[in-house]
Amino acid sequence: MTSSQAMSKTIPSGQSWLNAAMEILSKEGFQTLNIPRLCQKLQLTKGSFYHHFKNFAAFKQELLAFWEKDFTKDIFEEINSVEDPEAKYEMLFNLAFEKDLAVDLAIRSWAQADNQVRDVVSKVDEMRINILADMYQKASDLSEDAARNYAVIDYTGYIGFYSLFPDAPDSWARDLASIQTRSLLADSKMTGGKI
């Protein structure tokens, strides 16, 4: 075995660093996310980090892209083939609750202190609201503006719940989200989004 082969067995893939960062974000928050903490978590040296990433800024960019893909794009890709808007919403609902929402909250906190993170969070929020608006529009034959209003109410309820009750049991969160969604869908069908 050559030294480079031995080295490739001991240096984890770049994905391992991203996974470790997600765990740190979830359990400790963004304030502790740095190269020394990542190295400590993975029990590796800084040289191992720099084998995969030019610097922390490059790592942060990859981490944000990974969060966007894992927490949003992959979910939307999975639900894309479902035609029925209410079935699509149910699938979205279930997939969203499988994610570690503490990571979402940590990244939102980070966005308050970092413009690059804020830009990515804004982009992700817009993507999420757009998919919800599309589902409301198709489920209740709403105008684009009315569908967006329902989507914003729905999404801010979801984000707000976890902001207020970050340690809430999933069962309670699911119950409240289900009540909210049923109420919004019923209202959208009954009123057509008219005030």
How does this model look, in words?
Helices cover 79% and strands 0% of the residues. It contains ten helices and no strands. The radius of gyration is 20 Å and the shape is elongated. The termini are far apart.
Helix content: over 70%
Structural class: mainly alpha
Summarize the biggest pleated sheet. Answer: none
Overall radius of gyration? 20 Å
| Total strand segments | 0
Mean pLDDT rating? 91
Helix and strand run:
HHHHHHHHHH
Topology:
Elements (H helix, E strand, L loop, with lengths): L2 H8 L3 H15 L6 H8 L3 H7 L3 H24 L5 H13 L3 H11 L3 H26 L3 H21 L5 H22 L4
Report a brief summary of the structure.
The chain has 195 residues and is mainly α. The protein contains ten helices and no strands.
Key descriptive features of the protein:
single chain, 195 residues, mainly alpha, elongated, disordered N terminus
